[in-house]
Amino acid sequence: MAPPLGWWNKEAHRGTPVVVMMENPNWSIAEISSPDDNDECVVVAGEEFAAAGGGARKGARGRNAKQITWVLLLKAHRAAGSLTSLASAAVGVASAVRRRVASGRTDSDAAVFSREESPLLLSRFYSCIKAFLCLSVVLLGLEVAAYLKGWHLGVEETKHLLLPSSLGVRGLLESLYAGWVRFRVEYIAPPLQLLADACVILFLIQSADRLILCLGCFWMRFKGIKPIPKSTMGTSKDLESGGEDYPMVLVQIPMCNEKEVYQQSIAAVCNLDWPKSNILIQVLDDSDDPTTQALIEEEVEKWQQNGARIVYRHRVLRDGYKAGNLKSAMNCSYVKDYEFVTIFDADFKPSPDFLKRTVHHFKDNEELGLVQARWSFVNKDENLLTRLQNINLCFHFEVEQQVNGAFINFFGFNGTAGVWRIKALEDAGGWMERTTVEDMDIAVRAHLKGWKFVFLNDVECQCELPESYEAYRKQQHRWHSGPMQLFRLCLPDIIRSKIGFWKKSNLILLFFLLRKLILPFYSFTLFCIVLPLTMFVPEAELPAWVVCYVPATMSFLNILPAARSFPFIVPYLLFENTMSVTKFNAMISGLFQLGSAYEWVVTKKSGRSSDGDLISLGKKELRQQQQHASVPNLEAIANRRPQPEKETKRKHNRIYRKELALAFLLLTASARSLLSAQGIHFYFLLFQGITFLLVGLDLIGEQVD
């Protein structure tokens, strides 16, 4: 039945039905306006209250007031719930901070055992930051006093002040402040402005390079450009017989004390879809833990019994770390029977069709020396630290590696998940132990010999990201000190090489100087040193677009390959500036051979794996065991010697002193910026200081109870 026409009448209409749902599904509040003018029904929490009215009503205004009241109450309830959550989080953070401070463990304690940094270099760098911090605190006190007293003096005004001897205490302080103004204007501001301008120019050059890479990636997507093999793979029949489409492949798995991940990597490699007669797997174990050695050797024996062609190699002396391990394995006499070598680190789990999708790119392409696959991460959503790493590495693979591989056929080998032509390795001189980035070293030398590289963005190999800040920090230290060591060693060879002028320029100016040296230099200098100092020396200025707009644009471009991580764009920008301390320190130590620039620290793994991989590998392994093992060897089981359990080394969260000192420096500078009413600079310094504080207290990444 249609409603009466009076229902549409504005005068007869007493209100609009409103239903408001609270966060708790057990609560709902509704106000219902009845067609009958004489009664009003309000339902609250499932109970009905009737109010009979007589005569004239107050009309819609009263009901709207009630509706607004209920909405405001609901918003207040929601705000109270949010405050409760924030209070709980604050209590948790405060408890973690208290535990950190009470434990007293700092990065200097870790450096004593791991020799990550030279104590002398560590103390000098830390002392410089402390000096900046103390000076900034003193200047902040002086500026606050001047602000409260109203001493807004220019340079000309300071020249007409009376001598301190003719004034009291107030005059002494005013004269002292005037002397500081004259000194900073004449001696500090000019060099500081020069340094700021130089850093801004470097910042713009690096931003232009990143923008060009992004445009190249967009162009590749728009045109559908990707590496296409010159020939196709053989049929399943060829796979069984091992035809010419399936050349001899050597697979190497270097590892060192990585008992959390050895089973997954060995199982994944043994399940590669390749003729058994045309593949040999080398497990290159550098472990110094007897228990780990026994476990890995036992795993290799198990797969040997299942029919896999796999051998176990152990070095007593770890000369040259990973490079020495690979070099020793390539000296085996049987290597001459193989045409290609594939390398997987201990935490990498290739898919069964990995070799099928990579090796056939070499066929009919004799100039091709390397095929590199991209990485994917099983623990990218584990914590905030892994999410931020995922953003960085997605940009590295999808933009940097893909564009460089497509347009100049050169990029840095990532050390794993790649297939090398053994002839290219030998032509480049083989593995060398002279740096901590042996993968980049061999790639540069192969490029100088004229070999070409291909990057496959659609072929992924799963691995892990460091989940603790300590592990990530050590990894970044090695990744940023090694390129500087290599640059010093390779520069004469690059100049004397026979490659073209533009390739030499790209290698020296872009690959090494801009992306390996200039990037950490300006990032640390501009945002951690120059910007705070300009707050105390206002005569030297940094425009707002340098502090805010350009970094935000670059962060937006960086996050595009990992679009799902867009909500973390601000933490990503702040965290990258925070990591500039470690990267700058590593770059300096590698360039000038300071500290432990040649120290290799194995990145800690947690042994995480995706459920799908575990299920598929488990089923395939079970089928192989059923085919090859009918009756268990009871005698072997009875005679198996129990291995002594090594005491597990406990993990701890630490306090990082350099990051804490810089946090207080930036927070002090943000307080000074309030006196100058510099809005953008204040917010940037405030949030950057808070980020340094969180990182310094090791509140980002894995938390150990």
From TrEMBL:
<dbReference type="GO" id="GO:0048868">
    <property type="term" value="P:pollen tube development"/>
</dbReference>
<keyword id="KW-0328">Glycosyltransferase</keyword>
<feature type="transmembrane region" description="Helical">
    <location>
        <begin position="681"/>
        <end position="700"/>
    </location>
</feature>
<comment type="similarity">
    <text>Belongs to the glycosyltransferase 2 family. Plant cellulose synthase-like C subfamily.</text>
</comment>
<feature type="domain" description="Glycosyltransferase 2-like">
    <location>
        <begin position="341"/>
        <end position="548"/>
    </location>
</feature>
<dbReference type="GO" id="GO:0071555">
    <property type="term" value="P:cell wall organization"/>
</dbReference>
<dbReference type="GO" id="GO:0016757">
    <property type="term" value="F:glycosyltransferase activity"/>
</dbReference>
<keyword id="KW-0812">Transmembrane</keyword>
<feature type="transmembrane region" description="Helical">
    <location>
        <begin position="507"/>
        <end position="536"/>
    </location>
</feature>
<keyword id="KW-0472">Membrane</keyword>
<keyword id="KW-0333">Golgi apparatus</keyword>
<feature type="transmembrane region" description="Helical">
    <location>
        <begin position="542"/>
        <end position="560"/>
    </location>
</feature>
<dbReference type="InterPro" id="IPR001173">
    <property type="entry name" value="Glyco_trans_2-like"/>
</dbReference>
<keyword id="KW-1133">Transmembrane helix</keyword>
<protein>
    <recommendedName>
        <fullName>Glycosyltransferase 2-like domain-containing protein</fullName>
    </recommendedName>
</protein>
<keyword id="KW-0961">Cell wall biogenesis/degradation</keyword>
<keyword id="KW-0808">Transferase</keyword>
<dbReference type="InterPro" id="IPR029044">
    <property type="entry name" value="Nucleotide-diphossugar_trans"/>
</dbReference>
<dbReference type="Pfam" id="PF13632">
    <property type="entry name" value="Glyco_trans_2_3"/>
</dbReference>
<dbReference type="GO" id="GO:0000139">
    <property type="term" value="C:Golgi membrane"/>
</dbReference>
<comment type="function">
    <text>Probable beta-1,4-glucan synthase rather involved in the synthesis of the xyloglucan backbone than cellulose. Seems to work simultaneously with xyloglucan 6-xylosyltransferase. Xyloglucan is a noncellulosic polysaccharides of plant cell wall and consists of a glucan backbone substituted by xylose, galactose and fucose.</text>
</comment>
<dbReference type="GO" id="GO:0099402">
    <property type="term" value="P:plant organ development"/>
</dbReference>
